[in-house]
TrEMBL record:
The species this protein was found in: Streptomyces cynarae
Keyword Coiled coil: yes
Coiled-coil residue spans: 73-107
UniProt region (Disordered), positions on chain: 113-135
Protein's name in the database: TetR family transcriptional regulator
Keyword annotations: Coiled coil
Domain of life: Bacteria
Length: 135
C-alpha cells in the first residue's frame, strides 16, 4: 500500500470515531458514508471503491455501537415495504380482473345461447345458389 492509501485509511478511521462519538467537525455528523467521507476529507468514491472494507466496518459499528440502522438500510427497508404493498394491491386487482373476465365470459355465453334459441335460421332470400340444385 502506498503512503497516500495508508493516510486515507488513517483519516477514515479517525473520522469514524468522531462521527460515532457525535463530535463531527467537517460534516453534518449523519451516519452515512457521504458524511464519513466528508469528515475524513476523502472523496466519496474513494471510500466506496478503495476503502469498501472501511465503509462496511463503519456500518457494522453504527449497528453495534450506535444501536441504529444505517440510512441506506432504512431507505431500502422503506422501499421494500412500499414494493410489498404495491404487489399486494396488484394481486388483489388481478384477482378482481380474473373474476370480471369469468363473469363477462358467462354473460357472453348466456347471451349467445339466448340469441341462438330465439332466432332460428330460416331460408335466406338474398342467397343465390352457385350451381342449380338437380331436381
Amino acid at each position: 500500500m502506498t503512503e497516500q492509501h495508508q493516510a486515507e485509511r488513517h483519516h477514515i478511521r479517525a473520522a469514524m470515531d468522531r462521527v460515532l462519538a457525535g463530535q463531527a467537525i467537517a460534516s453534518n455528523g449523519s451516519l452515512t458514508n457521504v458524511a464519513l467521507a466528508a469528515e475524513a476529507g476523502v472523496h466519496r468514491m474513494a471510500l466506496m471503491k478503495r476503502h469498501a472494507d472501511l465503509k462496511n466496518e463503519f456500518y457494522e459499528r453504527v449497528r453495534s455501537e450506535a444501536q441504529q440502522i444505517p440510512e441506506p438500510e432504512k431507505r431500502l427497508r422503506k422501499t421494500v415495504a412500499e414494493l410489498k404493498r404495491t404487489i399486494a394491491n396488484q394481486k388483489v386487482e388481478i384477482e378482481e380482473l380474473r373474476q370480471l373476465v369469468t363473469n363477462l365470459a358467462l354473460a357472453s355465453a348466456v347471451l349467445a345461447q339466448e340469441q341462438g334459441a330465439s332466432t332460428e335460421p330460416g331460408p335466406a332470400d338474398n342467397v343465390i345458389p352457385f350451381r342449380p340444385t338437380p331436381d
